[in-house]
Design a protein that fits this description.
Blueprint lengths: L10 E3 L7 H14 L9 E9 L4 E5 L12 H12 L5 E10 L12 H14 L4 E5 L5 E4 L16
Parallel strand pairs: 4-5
Antiparallel strand pairs: 1-6, 2-3, 2-4, 5-6
């Protein structure tokens, strides 16, 4: 038997003020769109803001449904909107903010597994890494230089 070791590295910012100015602005947009999430079941609101290589910012918030699998996370809402409306643009940066109506979220909240796979699809498609910044309502902000830090063993079209 052999063993492999997978190491990932994240940058940690202690507060929004430590972020580069452009990321502060992008995260502020994620926070604002988070407040518009439709989350009557989980009371867990997520906002995502994408910066495209053409300068466009695309926003998304989670949209729940009584038939739970029919809802959509903020990250995928934004990614699919970008893919539909700006198919030639690359996603350069993503900011994600999550908050609960019931409990304080002070730890960074990463994308769920389904969102990670969707982000991976776009990284493969555009052959360019997406910087991902994520946070809770307050506290530290984590930065990943690529989705590959969050999902090191990716599934892609080469397996099909």
């Amino acid at each position: 038997m052999n063993e492999i070791t997978i190491k990932t590295t994240f940058s940690v910012f202690e507060n929004l003020g430590e972020l580069p100015t452009d990321i502060q602005d992008l995260m502020a947009k994620a926070v604002e769109i988070r407040k518009k999430a439709y989350a009557p079941y989980s009371q867990f609101r997520v906002g995502a803001a994408l910066l495209l290589d053409n300068g466009t910012v695309v926003l998304g918030s989670n949209q729940e449904n009584a038939a739970y699998p029919s809802g959509l996370c903020a990250e995928r809402t934004a990614i699919f909107h970008a893919g539909s409306n700006y198919p030639e643009a690359k996603i350069v940066k993503m900011a994600i903010s999550a908050a609960s109506d019931n409990n304080p979220t002070t730890a960074p909240i990463p994308p769920c597994g389904a969102c990670r796979q969707s982000i991976a699809e776009y990284e493969f498609k555009q052959d360019y890494p997406i910087e991902i910044y994520f946070m809770g309502e307050t506290g530290n902000i984590y930065k990943s230089d690529s989705l590959k830090n969050l999902l090191p063993l990716t599934f892609d079209k080469n397996f099909l």
